[in-house]
Amino acid sequence: MGDTVTGRDLGGVFVVLEGGDGAGKTTQSRLLDQWLTAEEIPHIMTYEPGDSWLGQRIRQLVLSPDSGPICSRAEALLYNADKAQHLDEVVIPALREGKVVVCDRYVDSTIAYQGAGRALDPDEVGQLARWATAGLVPDVTVLLDVDPCEGTGKIAAKDRLEAAGDEFHLRVRQHFLDLAAAHPQRYLVLNARNTRTQISEAIRHRVAGLLGR
Ligand SMILES: Nc1ncnc2c1ncn2[C@@H]1O[C@H](COP(=O)(O)OP(=O)(O)OP(=O)(O)O)[C@@H](O)[C@H]1O
Ligand SMILES: [Mg+2]
Q: Function of this protein (predicted)?
């Protein structure tokens, strides 16, 4: 693996939320936003794919039912083009200003979802993503882990699960866990079935530590 740079190397703190569909990433990013605001800690909230001018167009291309077929390699390149632009336009400038950057999904989602489709080797997708992101790794990745078969009683998630098949989502979960296990010091793996409050307190504790509080 090539050289890596963390958010703190650039002067800020880079926090990423990862996990399967409906695991609670957006819920927890909102709670973290509330806490950072209350503590008057300069921060931005962002997400992938799509939170840049180019990313919005890429997101439309990849997710719109109006699009034609997109082969696996083209899809991987599009998601990674989104990342490159997002870092350049949004994430890195904020980190250089000393801000906390909270990002809903990042490299691990690309590896887990693309790799779980079995069309591409997850290690190769990881190499591509590291190149696209110039080795920027989160100071902490919060992985909201949940068995996709159990879920947390979420009908929307269940619909998507049925659409793509249980096996696919089980492999997505395993990819996330494997990535966390490879660099345990950079991850906070939490049981997504815990209460919102329990989860948000664990996240705050970790982020406060990264801020030296
Ligand atoms: N800890 C929790 N326990 C029970 N339900 C939760 C918990 N956290 C979130 N939820 C509920 O689960 C649903 C999905 O949450 P949320 O939208 O935050 O997930 P997500 O990971 O952002 O999903 P997506 O992958 O679709 O963006 C919402 O209805 C939310 O209110
Ligand atoms: Mg969400």
A: Phosphorylation of dTMP to form dTDP in both de novo and salvage pathways of dTTP synthesis.
